[in-house]
Amino acid sequence: MFSDKLRLLRQETGLTQTQTAERVGISWRTYQDLEAGKYPSYVTLLKIADTFQVSVDWLMGRTEDREVHQL
Asked: Is the separation of the CB atoms in 2 and 60 below 8 Å?
């Protein structure tokens, strides 16, 4: 589920895996592992959510709402 959403975000923005990894601030190999099904560390999860401006809950499949809600 996470890997599918990550791939979807990358494809929607028209980026390669390498370009996405650079924007997120992780290695290409780490990014490749994430698209292959590995779950991210907490820090990496936050970086991905911030980069694509989506909620962590959406990335992790807890909601269908992509928006980040501020308290």
From this structure: yes
Tell me, yes or no, whether 41 lies in a domain. Answer: yes
Residue 21 placed within a domain: yes
Q: pLDDT grade, residue 56 (50/70/90)?
A: very high
Q: Give the ranges where 1-71 is alpha helix by DSSP (H).
A: 2-13, 17-24, 28-35, 42-52, 56-59
pTM: 0.90
Task: Report the CATH number at residue 43.
Answer: 1.10.260.40
Whether residue 7 contacts residue 33, with contact meaning beta carbons closer than 8 Å, is answered with: no
Evaluate whether 7 touches 59 at the Cβ level (below 8 Å): no
